[in-house]
UniProtKB/TrEMBL annotation:
Pfam families cross-referenced by the UniProt entry: F-box, FBA_1
Region (Disordered): 1-33
Biased composition (Basic residues): 15-33
Lineage: Eukaryota, Viridiplantae, Streptophyta, Embryophyta, Tracheophyta
InterPro entries given in the database record: F-box-assoc_dom_typ1 (IPR006527), F-box-assoc_interact_dom (IPR017451), F-box-like_dom_sf (IPR036047), F-box_dom (IPR001810), SCF_F-box_component (IPR050796)
Name by which UniProt lists this protein: F-box domain-containing protein
Residues covered by the F-box domain: 55-101
Length: 415
């Protein structure tokens, strides 16, 4: 073959090979393009599927269910959850939610204790912990809202998580220690002579849905004097005068006890113009703002001290010393019905009780154990075997006042 034909053959082969290579390259590029497009389409499809599957796999909770779940959580958790989002903050602050939460936590009890040291100290701990672990109970120090460490404000009572303190007999402080919100009432504005005192009581008007503080002004210097009464409304943040205490009746206990929509005072009743008197229970209906007498049980009045009132498991109770050998506690199971009084427990005094008496009771367990205070310390008495336990609270001792309260979201600023 001639060189020219050979060259021509190589050229033809080259063009043929080049054309084939070009076609293969083009085909490969098309295929790659298709793969890329297919891959892109597949990726887009997968992402879309993932989004759809993700959105469908996320549980959808109706608002009603969210409310049910959150309303069963403790206050400390809910205070933190306010920061989750605006809708949760709005929900947890809503009055309907606060009332619903209150229904689930009516027995989530804590006890607040005020110390007897020179400075005013407040501690709080769970009752369950106090009773189940009496030797290792941890207490939380509370920052009292009124900044005066040398004060000694008395605890008036508690209602739905609000704790009421009397400030110098002239005004009260309503405080929810669980959410750390407080409000001080305006001053009463009464100019009383030395020796006069004010007895307060905190309660709830279920009809008007309003928390009320009742103040009874007593002047023991005046024989057969009237006891003037004012009511503070948390809703209006103001005091107003109501009907005086029954004629000749003077409360001798520091605070009224809230039971079944009423405030109850242990009082002295002076008979006519005579100097003789007896003790009675005066009940004030917070909705009607009317008074009635509650009859005590038929108890051993002879050689017994004058009774004081308290609240146990939402029932009115009364307690007294008998012959300085026993401390007796009665409970009124059905409020207002005298026949429903039962003698709950008789607590013996230890030898040589000196001048100290039991105070309380503050709580009774399902097993019947009764929590009291004696000589600035808590005491747990078990009537089943007549044994005593002495709860020791870490980072605090020496108490002069105590009150049981529940952890709630109820705010004194609104409700």
């Amino acid at each position: 073959m001639s060189s020219s034909s050979s060259q021509h053959g190589r050229t033809t082969d080259y063009h043929h090979h080049h054309h084939r290579h070009h076609r293969i390259g083009a085909t490969r590029k098309k295929r790659e393009r298709r793969v890329l497009i297919s891959s892109s389409t597949t990726t887009t499809s997968m992402e879309q599927h993932h989004r759809e599957s993700s959105s469908s796999s996320l549980p959808f909770l109706p608002d009603e269910l969210v409310v049910e779940i959150l309303s069963r959580l403790p206050v400390k958790s809910l205070v933190k959850f306010r920061c989750v989002c605006k809708s949760w903050n709005s929900l947890i602050s809503d009055s309907y939610f606060i009332k619903k939460h209150l229904q689930h936590f009516t027995h989530h009890n804590r006890i607040i204790l005020s110390a007897t040291t020179a400075e005013f100290h407040l501690n709080s701990c769970y009752l369950n912990s106090l009773i189940s672990n009496p030797l290792t109970t941890y207490s939380e120090h509370l920052n009292y809202p009124v900044k005066n460490k040398y004060r000694h404000d008395g605890i008036v009572g508690s209602c739905n998580g609000l704790v009421c303190f009397a400030i110098k007999g002239d005004c009260v402080l309503l405080w929810n220690p669980s959410i750390r919100v407080s409000k001080k009432s305006p001053p009463l504005g009464n100019n009383w002579r030395p020796g006069c005192f004010t007895s307060f009581g905190l309660g709830y008007d279920h009809v008007k849905q309003d928390y009320k503080v009742v103040a009874v002004f007593c002047d023991p210097n005046q024989f057969f004097s009237e006891s003037k009464v004012k009511v503070y409304s948390m809703a209006t943040n103001s005091w107003r005068k109501i009907q005086d205490f029954p004629h000749g009746v003077t409360p001798y206990q520091n605070s009224g006890k809230f039971v079944s929509g009423t405030l109850n005072w242990a009082s002295n009743w002076t008979h006519g113009n005579s100097s003789s008197s007896s003790w009675i229970i005066v009940s004030l209906d917070l909705q009607k703002e009317s008074y009635r007498e509650i009859l005590p049980p038929d108890y051993e009045k002879e050689e017994s001290s004058t009774p004081t009132l308290g609240v146990l498991n939402e029932c009115l109770c009364m307690s007294y010393d008998h012959k300085r050998t026993h401390f007796v506690v009665w409970v009124m199971k059905d409020y207002g019905v005298r026949e429903s009084w039962i003698k709950l427990v008789t607590v013996p005094y230890l030898p040589n009780p000196e001048d100290f008496s039991y105070s309380g009771p503050y709580y009774v367990t399902d097993k019947g154990e009764v929590l009291l205070m004696f000589e600035f310390d808590l005491v747990l008495f078990d009537p089943s075997d007549h044994s005593f336990k002495y709860p020791r609270i870490q980072n605090g001792k020496g108490w002069f006042d105590a009150e049981v309260y529940v952890e709630t979201l109820v705010s004194p600023m609104k409700h």
